[in-house]
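Try it yourself: sequence plus beta-D-fucofuranose, in.
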Amino acid sequence: MKAGKRKVKRESSRVSALLLCLALLTGCSPFSGVTVPTTQTAEDTLPPEEDIRNLISVGFSQLGAESAWRIANTESIRGALTKEDGFYLLSDNARQKKENQIKAIRSYISQRVDYIVFAPVTEEGWETVLQEAQIAGIPVIAIDRSIELSSRHLLTSWIGEDMRQEGEKAGLWLEDYLKECGRQDDPINIVVLQGTQGSSAQLGRTIGFDSIADRHDNWNILEQRDADFTTAKGGEVMETFLKKYHDIDVVVSQNDDMTAGALEAMDRAGITTGEGGVTVLSFDSTRAGLQLLKDGRINVDIECNPLSGPLLADVIHRIENGEEIEERYYMTENVFTADNVDRYIGHRAY
Ligand code: GYE
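Structure, out:
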């Protein structure tokens, strides 16, 4: 039954391939301004069709390997889209560059994969390449970060995290914490280490946190700076902050990797963090992040769940079986503090 379905699908993808060739030859396409790809640049290529006849081929463009979260996400996808579960997976690491992701997606289009999956580095700039995938008749599923599109039909589905809500959770936690400490009316100076500019993770977490900060005239955001979600840049940006400001009360760091760098910089400057020191809010809740929480070096870690592989595999199987799927799937996420960290840290896989 499945093989039959695959055959029908391959037929229809042959028709789309023909249309694509015609578009190439004539320079015309149903979408004005669309340049049809001609080169292959992904790290992996598909084997001959007879070797993967009963497998669903998926081209996966991962945005990078910048953080522990990202590595866990890549492993989750690789662990779920296995041959045993009916998949043949191609993958590419875009090293945090949108151009590399677009190249990989184009390569998957020209290789006629059955599905394209990508974790978009930034929110904008995907229209053209997604139109190209649509012309080729290849369904595209975005994971992790979200994107801005003029038509939702360019994506078959999206599986990711609610970044804005994560930012709000951070703000709400700080609100409660300051109340508990009796500091709710004190001036509170805040610096923010932001993730990759223009990514939905940076935008959502910033907008979410700011929406709570706006309710408090005494919360003073001194500066928000890009540290690109990496430990090295987190350290550099924190050093710059420490040179400029001598009265920082709160550090908001949009992922655990940047937090690690920021803590090293504060250590070097002899600054204590956590309970009784500078309050540190972090995001992701990797094992390393939870350990910092357990050690009392940070105050709260807002979870972002990277384990979307099994749900992705399930969604693709559902599409293959002609079942209904959702337009958007949100991962479930928690908030960790010293009060509940012990219950989770032991079985944290990443
Ligand atoms: O927080 C960060 C990673 O997009 C949610 O990207 C993801 C973010 C995550 O580099 O660690």
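One thing you can check immediately is this: Confidence is low (pLDDT under 50) at residues 1-42.
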